[in-house]
Specification:
mainly alpha, transmembrane helix, elongated, 124 residues
Length: 124
């Protein structure tokens, strides 16, 4: 017979395993990129995964203060994402690589084929 405690324990371990898997995939996206926008979205996802970890640990331990920590982390993560988005927009507007690159989520300097194209444009 499946008891409530056994079902809760299985759910906690399953959710922790899925969170670890999503954490690893997201870290790979942060490292791989290819654009700055991809990295910002992946970092925002890491904040969400951390909130998930905190929530699961709060359920496992029964210590409800962790929920307040998760809410605070969500607010800080949101502000960090907004700040990074503003940085990308300012970088795209101030840079001479091309207008609208930041709006399209592209970072022209990161791709090798764009570097040679940019050098050719500067020579012309």
């Amino acid at each position: 017979m499946i008891t409530e405690a056994l079902l809760l324990s299985a759910g906690i371990w399953l959710s922790l395993a899925l969170l670890v898997l999503s954490f690893l995939v997201t870290v790979a996206r942060v490292i791989r990129g290819p654009t700055l926008g991809d990295r910002v979205v992946a970092l925002d996802m890491l904040v969400g995964i951390a909130i998930g970890f905190i929530a699961v640990i709060a359920i496992k331990t029964g210590f409800t203060l962790y929920i307040d920590v998760a809410i605070a982390l969500g607010l800080v993560g949101f502000l960090a994402t907004v700040a990074l988005a503003r940085f990308i927009l300012a970088r795209g507007a101030a840079g001479a690589e091309g207008e609208g690159a930041a709006m399209r989520g592209e970072d022209a300097g990161e791709r090798p084929e764009n570097r040679s194209k940019m050098k050719q444009e500067r020579k012309a």
